[in-house]
Amino acid sequence: MTTYVAFLRAINVGGHGVVKMTALRDAFTAAGCKDVRTLIASGNVLFEAPAAGIAALEGRIRTELGELFEATPGLFIRTVRDVARLVAANPFRRYAGKGRLALYVAFMSRKPRQIPRLPLRSVPEVLDVISVKGREAFIVSGRKKNGLYGFPNLFIEKQLDVTATCRNWKTVVKIALTLAVLGCASAPPPVRPPSTLAPAPSTALDDLMRSDLASDRAVAWSTRRLTWDDFQGDPPTDGSEGAVTAYTIYSAWKCRGDAFEFRVVAGFRPRQSWVKAIVLRDSVQRRTVLIHEQTHFDLAEVHARLMRRAFRALDRPCRQSDGELSALAQRLGQTEKAEQRRYDAETKHGLLGDEQARWTLQTRRRLTASN
Q1: pTM recorded for the entire structure
Q2: Which residue range(s) make up the domain with 69?
Q3: Do 52 and 125 belong to one domain?
Q4: Fewest C-beta atoms under 10 Å: which of 23, 26, 64, 138?
């Protein structure tokens, strides 16, 4: 079985092509797709299918979509590895950090028969097509006089004589990250003969990790301790919790023959982390609650290292199916969440000083042991 992503054109955009995600999943399932999921509510569908029958399956999907919509939306199918390679290549690297720009990827129905000289500019839409690679085009857009960013879809279709659907680069990166977490993770086991290893570590995966962290404004775990200034989210007005630490365990992988590279990073998410004023006003709570929240983040790093170790120990990971790797990643994620819940229960969210001290010390020892 091969894992695919289908990008649909004009779904839930500007009041057009409005559809519930459950109906979209049902349509793909009825066409014969397996393990169907939707990713973000803009017409992105993840599914599994045999590679040998993808052309016929695409026809059946179009038929089912035709019954769901008044007009069949454009359908653009890519493999999971296609999307991962696209993000790892990152043609927008030189635009990182530049404000007042929107970055887009156009997924096209086929390779253009002829590519004009690049960059290809649209003055009315204030955009430039900076690159065309295979069935994807990459666009940088500025703001128009009305304050909106120029949108490239019609321009791409007219200039390159294709049908296409466009996604914001941040959306594509988020989809790639979701795909990596669901089913892409491993590193070469140490017992593998040197001849099977990649000649040098891949910088593409490191770039992907940096892009994922930057997209969420996340901060990778380090020996630097958290401070309350790091908690930038708005706290809720109700609920008994005094603070919340938001984090994500980011991961990505790449296969080269039998050599498998893997990256995993525990990232703290400041904008989703918050603390209530009542905690900050109390000198005792201000100190003890911060210790409790730091240990949550430290536990996330412990489990990121456990994930790295588990995939490194796999025998011939490149020869395992996406489903097998996904199942392992999900089990590891469930183990991490279960321990985080046990930590909160045994410390009563940091209120039991002795239990909190035990967990904090134990977690720090685990980090030291896994260096």
Answers
A1: 0.52
A2: 2-73
A3: no
A4: 23
Write out pLDDT tens, residues 112-148.
999 999 999 999 999 999 999 999 999 999 988 888 8
Domain count, the chain: 3
- Which residue among 73, 105, 123 closes a domain? 73
Q: Tell me the sheet residues that pair with 260.
A: 255
Clarify whether residues 147 and 38 are in a common domain. Answer: no
Phi, psi torsion values for 201, nearest 5 degrees:
-60, 145
What per-residue string of b and e applies to 259-276 under the rule 16 or more CB within 10 Å gives b? bbbbbbbbbbbbebbbbb
Contact 18, 178 (CB under 8 A): no
Decide which of 12, 47, 73 is a domain's last residue. 73
The tens digit of pLDDT for each residue in 24-41 reads: 899 999 999 998 988 877
- Tokens matching residue 153: 């879809």
CA 326 to chain centre: 14
* Rounded distance between C-alpha atoms, residue 73 and residue 65, angstroms: 7
Kindly state whether residue 176 falls inside one of the protein's structural domains: no
Q: How many CB atoms lie within 10 A of CB 212?
A: 23
